[in-house]
Design goal:
By secondary structure, the chain is an alpha/beta fold. Helix content is about 40%, strand content about 15%. The chain is built from 8 helices and 7 strands. The protein is globular. The two termini are about 35 Å apart.
Length: about 250
């Protein structure tokens, strides 16, 4: 194996939730490895990631859409194919989180989180998978799981349920598509300094409890998952199927 196997030259990707945070870091990393990357977010205007992609000499576009709306799924896949000619890589990164005690957890929270964090991942993977199967050229689907794919968390029943589902969906799709040269894998980020963890980081007691358990002794940075994302989206990972890779500063090892 050579370092060329980590290159993505000529590949076309879509990264959901790439307006900021983990998604933006992944989009930029894929572009620096050679891919054209379509970006998505709920904000009406594109974020700085698109400018970085263009600066890297890659094609890009931005779609504003709420993944709670099922009409967004075909729009995103079709736009990627129309802009680039194909979709070779799908990164299902977009997600939301809502915290509340389980006994009082609003049904609206549950419905939104299951739809955005799990149903959207299946539908986007299904649509991208159909395209990849039809082309017969294989492809890569990378899901963003969570430490809560393995643990239950506190005050986040819907998020934990959805992320547990992501781990199982990753395996289920891999079982069907591995023989077709479509790799389906996931990354489970640890505690990252993103919008989703702002409440935890702003709580001095909870933040200290978390940091004390992380062997790396720091919150993760979005850039910390860039290398894992490039690996799982490149030919370097061609024999990796149905795996959930924890990038967590050692959290699960404690």
């Amino acid at each position: 194996m050579s370092l060329e196997s980590f290159q993505l030259n000529g590949k076309n990707a879509l990264v959901t939730g790439s307006h900021r945070g983990l998604g933006a870091a992944i989009a930029v990393a894929l572009a620096k490895a050679g891919a054209n990357v379509g970006c998505h977010g709920r904000d009406s205007k594109a974020g700085p990631a698109c400018d970085e992609l263009r600066a890297a000499g890659r094609k890009t576009f931005y779609v504003s859409a709420d993944l709670a709306d099922s009409k967004a799924y075909p729009t995103l896949i079709e736009r990627t194919i129309a802009e680039f000619g194909s979709i070779d890589i799908l990164v299902n990164n977009a997600g939301v989180i809502q915290r509340a005690p389980a006994a009082e957890y609003p049904v609206g929270f549950w419905d939104e989180l299951i739809t955005v964090n799990l149903t959207a991942v299946f539908r986007l993977s299904q649509l991208a998978g159909r395209h990849m199967l039809g082309r017969g050229a294989g492809g890569k689907i990378l899901n963003i799981a969570s430490l809560l794919s393995f643990q239950g968390g506190i005050l986040v029943p819907a998020y934990a349920a959805a992320k547990g589902g992501i781990a199982q969906l990753t395996k289920a799709l891999a079982n069907e598509w591995a023989s077709k040269a479509i790799n389906v894998n996931a990354i489970a980020p640890g505690y990252m300094a993103t919008d989703n963890t702002a409440a935890l980081r702003n709580d001095p007691v909870r933040s200290r409890q978390i940091l004390d358990r992380i062997p790396a002794a720091r919150w993760g940075d979005p850039g910390d998952i860039a290398g894992a994302a490039v690996f799982l989206c490149s030919s370097a990972s061609d024999y990796a199927h149905g795996h959930v890779l924890a990038v967590d500063g050692g959290w699960l090892a404690r």
